[in-house]
Amino acid sequence: MVAERAGYTVTMFLIDVSKSMGNTRTVDLPDGPNGEPRTTEMTNLEWSLQFVLLKIQEMIFHGRKTEQCGVILFGTEETDNIVNQNHGGYDHVTEYIEIAQPNANTLAKLQHLRPSEDITGDPIDAVIVGIETQDKYLGNKKTWTRKMVLLTDGESPIVLEDWEQTAAKIKSLGVITAIIGIDFDDEEFAFKEEKKSRHKRVNESFYKEFVSELGQLAVVGTCAFALQECVRPEVKTTKSALQGTILRLGDVEVRSDEAIEIHVRTSKCTAQVRPASMKKFAKRVPDDEASQQASQRTEADGDGDVTMDEGEGKRDVYAQIKMDTEYHIDRTEYDEDEENEDNKKEEGKEDENEEDRSEKVDKDLLVRGFKYGATYVPCPDDGQFPRLNTPRGMDICGFFPLAKFRREFVMGEVSYVWADPSSGEQQIVFSSLVQAMLSRDVVAIVRWVSREGMDPKMGVLIPREFEKVDCFLWVQMPFADDVRKYTFPSLNELVSKKGEKITEHPYIPTSEQEEVMDRFVDAMDLMQAGDKDETGDRMPWFDPRLSFNPAVHRIKQALFHAAIVTDLRSNPIPEPHPEVIKYLNPPKRVLKRAHDTIEETINIIKVKQVPKKVARARKDGHVRAEDDDDAPLLLDVLPPKSASRAGSQAQIPSQVSRSPARSATLVDTQVSQKSKAKPAEDSETEDETEDEADGSKSHAASPPLSQAASGVQDEEEQDSLQGSRRIIGLSNPLADFRKNLKKGDIVSKAVEDLTWAIMEILVKPFASRRHSELRDCMRELRTTCLTEDEIAVWNGFIRDLKQSCLTKSGISNKPFWKSVQEMGREISLISEVEAQNLGGTSEFTEEDSVKFIET
């Protein structure tokens, strides 16, 4: 495929706005959330304009100044074109948008187009005006590409006089022409309009004859197929600009008589495409609430406000968020004599103290530095360390056999290296080097510096011989220090502690398991799962040349669609093109063929689902869980003295040293003795039961519920809490949850730990006494998940809770689930309607939510 120069194109869009373009049609939309079919009504002009809008939006997306377009309307009530001004005639043809680089205003003007009330226009007149307008604008720019798109429903009358001269003019100028007809017959698209007027049938035949006269320059098709092809993913092949550099072999400074310098040019062979970057928007705060949120560090650009219709007459304004960075120095110092930190229960006081100790500094007073080991090394005054003086060019450092080339080490993009096209001598030397490397089947190690003073890159030059030219392919490789070598133990050989080889072990597959796995792999072979070729043989199912990145093309489709429609609710984004999702699912033929083998593999190997591991919490920024006696054990702070603890104070030393051995002293001597005040729900019976389970005895009579119960702390629970770094405890989970939410940046961790705490409490003895507390936790958890975009977490938790409560293998707590059902719809699954009101998504409908809580 010949590379096309990017840009340098002028496209003329000739749009029919005659009376017949106002006829309405029913257009299918993507199915609704529950799979219900949806349709909408729009005129032929609105429907066909989507093609023009998508094409222009693609030009805007590329942002090239040399990619321009103009719009000519025919069938307008007025007349305004250069041919009419110079020679007269060509009535009802208007130059609507002059040739220029398109922008957002271009799309806005097109969206305001409406069909004429009783006027019809001649398409041939529009073609002539478009050719003359384009030719006058380009003048002597013969290298520019000329394109023309005619959009019509075929109902307008055509004057067929001297149309051959018009076709000859198009051929002489090399104008690439496309005629897009509304409901035109298309054999390739398998569409044929049955109830077609005689006038339209005659015009359609003329368009096909007109296109055949133009040959390969023109094409005619139906609008439905054109709209589908607009979203077809494609790899754009463009001509990369040549960059000059020098290829050196040997030391040209010390041994210039033994060295070679070749002037070469480089160009891109491949270029990575990334999805369009997303911008963050936030709902603009009303004036009466702005003062309450003055402490926020974000600013919104008023010029970039976006107004969105939220339904029920509500229109919210969203503004783009900008980053505002401030630098603070934390002057906080740990005071060893300060023992009353735990008595500060007011969260506001702690926040105020933190702000008082934080000193704001100007950025100009800071010095840039880099971390080296455990210290930071400041940069010199200019903010940069001295750079290595690197000369521009490509230096060959050595050669090695192509067979030892490590394909998995290749990094980044591939570049061509060509000989200088302006020097025949350089081309001969360059070609000799390529042929010599090909004859010996070697590749070269190259150090490439793209510009003076730039960081060098190491890569490999691979010789290539094409039909008429020799060249190199350059690919970047990692430095030796960047390659990590990891060793792993054998998968099929295990050795015991005594050094004996183990032959039977759950980790060692048996011969039966190896055989069934071989059959499974053979059954899933994709090399003969594709379509049949000309000889009737099956081809490979996957072709890398036809595979596309769904993230790139789907985001691009969403951006284009949002730019050309006025209401996304009534006209949502259409389904992705079949080519985008072609390889997302395995072929059905292979799945059917491998079904029995898969079942056999599962049974013989005993495949089981691996339980999800709980993510470890961060080491800083978390509020510690106040779970039983964790405070003195984990936070290195003595429990506060109070009258309610008088009965157990005799068992706690009056003074504990703050030496490093303090934690060990607490663990060794006090874990089985100390006690702590508990909420009223935790009765002494529960503590005694846990003590009996641990093999301990109660030391005193049970006090009233208003006083703290004395008992033995469960060491396993302490170890579990300390090891998993939970931030929600079991004693007062709701208070811990609310306390951590105020931190602001650990919502996900707090939600995860509260779901864990609820499930843990339900399996403990006498959990029925805390049912009311757990329901409050669930109510708070659901509200947080709904507002903090943790909807999937809540829906997964409530389903797991129901299943566990109603099955014997789980919690088996039917009374608790019955009490949850009595709370009604407010505690059920979060539906799509609830999620959309707060900008979220859910896979469950309102009916699913009601049915879930009632059954």
TrEMBL record:
Residue stretches of biased makeup (Polar residues): 645-674
GO CC aspect terms: chromosome, telomeric region; Ku70:Ku80 complex
One Gene Ontology molecular-function label: telomeric DNA binding
E.C. code: 3.6.4.12
Enzyme class: hydrolase
Subcellular localization, as worded in the UniProt entry: Chromosome, Telomere; Nucleus
UniProt-listed InterPro entries: DNA_bd_Ku70/Ku80, Ku80, Ku_C_sf, Ku_N, Ku_PK_bind, SPOC-like_C_dom_sf, VWF_A, vWFA_dom_sf
Signal sequence extent: none
PANTHER family, A to Z: KU AUTOANTIGEN DNA HELICASE (PTHR12604), X-RAY REPAIR CROSS-COMPLEMENTING PROTEIN 5 (PTHR12604:SF4)
Protein name: ATP-dependent DNA helicase II subunit 2
Organism field: Schizopora paradoxa
